[in-house]
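Z., the sequence and structure:
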Amino acid sequence: VQLQASGGGLVQAGGSLRVSCAASGRTFTGYRIGWFRQAPGKEREFVAVLQWGASTTYYADSVKGRFTVSRDNAKNTVYLQMNSLKPEDTAVYYCAAGAPGRWDYYYSVDNYDYWGQGTLVTVSS
């Protein structure tokens, strides 16, 4: 299984950016595909998650209303559209895949089986 995150970069506060997670190596039907982020000196934190093949999504309170997670089945790719970016959104963004079920802990890093390498998002003030 491979998860390839891309699309990070430098953006001004208030701007938008879309990061992508290309998934390969297995069928991900029913899997949780999550986005996490880790800022310097901080722990990795949950951002958003969707269920592959369904409409279930969850967001961290800090990004709700600004970020949207979506997927393109044909491309086996999950996207995180980030709008109204703030300097505190600066972090390395990781995508991760977790086996079906275990939705009670969708926000926990321990609940995901595969991780991508991360892509850096920097928001300048």
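The chain has no helices and eleven strands. The mean pLDDT is 95.

Let me know what you think.
H.
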